[in-house]
């Protein structure tokens, strides 16, 4: 059980680490860059601590490593990653929707229709949707299929 918790914590810390890398690269102000860099360093240290703890447990108690059920870990990680990518996509859609309602991002043409300006969607948002969409679909399908299997047959 300890190894499972350590592996899940390491995977979550790694995902947060990747998030801070992306936020650091896309931040525009020096204060935000410093905050994201500090968070990046903290998650790097946490990753090192989790990997060291897993290594120590593996060397001292190899039987605990053999008892780890990887199906449960993969199922939980797929669900967590699915929800994280879903939240990223929801955040992007909400921010674009808010900009679409802001009058500085559109003008009305001669016929009274809204014409959106070029900067309504940022390049990073556009790329993040297309980068996270396949990941969300594949991991979401795996998570839901295992969940249905667990509900119907009582096993993952």
Account of the protein in words:
- The chain has 156 residues and is mostly helical.
- The chain has two domains: 1-68; 69-156.
- The protein is built from five helices and two strands; from the N terminus they run ααααββα.
- Strands 1-2 form a two-stranded antiparallel sheet.
- Helix 1 (2-26) packs parallel to helix 4 (70-101) and helix 4 (70-101) packs across helix 5 (123-153).
- The longest helix has 32 residues, at 70-101.
- The mean pLDDT is 89.
Q: Give the overall silhouette.
A: flat
Order of helices and strands: HHHHEEH
Radius of gyration: 21 Å
**Mean pLDDT level:** 89
Total beta-strand segments: 2
Give the structural class: mainly alpha
Q: What is the end-to-end distance?
A: 17 Å
By DSSP (H or I, 4+ residues per run), the number of helices equals: 5
Main pleated sheet:
2 strands, antiparallel
| DSSP helix fraction | over 70%
List unreliable stretches of 5+ residues. Answer: none
Amount of beta strand: under 5%
| Structural domains: how many | 2
Strand order of the biggest β-sheet: 1-2
Please name the defining characteristics of this protein:
156 residues, two-stranded antiparallel sheet, flat, mainly alpha, 2 strands, 2 domains
């Amino acid at each position: 059980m300890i190894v499972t918790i350590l592996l899940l914590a390491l995977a979550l810390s790694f995902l947060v680490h990747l998030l801070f890398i992306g936020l650091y690269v896309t931040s525009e102000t020096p204060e935000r860059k410093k905050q994201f860099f500090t968070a990046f360093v903290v998650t790097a240290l946490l990753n090192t601590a989790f990997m060291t703890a897993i290594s120590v447990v593996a060397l001292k108690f190899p039987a605990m490593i053999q008892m780890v059920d990887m199906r449960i870990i993969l199922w939980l990680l797929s669900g967590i990653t699915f929800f994280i990518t879903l939240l990223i996509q929801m955040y992007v859609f909400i921010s674009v929707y808010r900009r679409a309602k802001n009058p500085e991002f559109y003008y009305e043409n001669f016929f009274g229709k809204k014409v959106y300006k070029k900067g309504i969607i940022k390049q990073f948002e556009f790329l993040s949707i297309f980068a996270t969409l396949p990941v969300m679909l594949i991991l979401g399908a795996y998570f839901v299929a295992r969940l249905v299997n667990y509900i119907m047959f009582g096993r993952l």
